[in-house]
Amino acid sequence: MREFEKxxxxxxxxxxxxxxKLWNPFVEAxxxxxLVNEGDKVTVCISGGKDSMLMAVLFRMLQRFSxxxxxxxxxxxxxxxxxxxxxxxxxxxELLHIPITVFESDIFEVANNTDNNPCYLCARMRRGxxxxxxxxxxxxxIALGHxxxxxxxxxxxxxxxxxxxxxxxxxxxxxxxxxxxxxxPMYCINEEDIxxxxxxxxxEFIQCACRFTEKYTLTNNAEGESKRQEVKMxxxxxxxxxxxxxxxxxxxxxxxxxxxFPGYKxxxxxxxxxxxxxxxxxVE
Length: 284
Prior knowledge:
Blueprint: H1 6-15, H2 19-32, E1 41-45, H3 50-65, E2 71-78, H4 83-95, E3 100-104, H5 107-111, H6 118-136, E4 141-143, H7 148-161, E5 171-173, E6 181-183, H8 191-200, H9 227-239, H10 245-252, E7 263-266, E8 269-272, H11 277-280
Parallel strand pairs: 1-2, 1-4, 2-3, 4-6
Antiparallel strand pairs: 5-6, 7-8
C-alpha cells in the first residue's frame, strides 16, 4: 500500500472528507466573484494562522486542477514575530510543502508604540507592505485568508459599533497601488470547517501573532478582548437557537433592498429615500 507524505494526506482530506465544506466553497468563491483570471500572478499572503495556511494549500490544488492558467507566489511578511511564531510558520510551510518567500518589517514595533488605534494602524501598514512586495515580485493580486465568519462578523460589527450597514467585499482594487487587486477566495468557507480540518489533520498553527494581543487566546470565556471577539461569541450563542443564522446574515449582504432603506451611501456620497420618494409612488 502506498504511503503518503503529510502534505499529500492534507490535500486528500480536502478533496475527499472536506470536499463539500472546503474545496467546493473555495471554488465557488473563485468562480462566483471572478477572483482569478487567465494570466494572473497571485501572491498568497500567509500570516501563519490556520486560514492563510489552508488558503495556500487550496490555491496550490486549484492551480493544478484549473483550466485557467495562473501563477502563484507564497509570501510571508514578518512584521516582528517572536522567535517561536516565526519558527512555527517556517516549520508548517516545510511540512505542507509551501515554498514561502519571507520578508521582514518593523510594523509591530511602530504600531504598538502608538496610543491611537494600534490595531487599525497595524492592519493598514501590513496590507500596504504586502501590496508593495507583491508588486515588486511582478504580481497583480494579493490573496488574503478572510473567511465567511469574518464576513458576517464585520457586517454585525459595522451595525453595532459604527452605526452603518457595511460588508466585507470579496475583492477590491487597490487605491494606492495601481493595477493591484485584493481577493478573498475563502469568502464562502465557514471558520468551523477550517478548525475541523485542522484538528482532523493534527495540525498546529499560530493563533494571534500580534505582540499587542498575544496574551489573549480564543476561548469561550474570553473577557476584555476585541469587539470582533465579542461579536463572535454573540453569534455562537445565537446559533444555539438558530443554526442557520450565519447563512442568513451572509445571504442578506447579497440581497440588499435599497428601496427599503431611508438612507444609503454610494461612491462616498450620502443619499436619502426622499430623493426619489415622489417618483416611486405607493409601495405595498
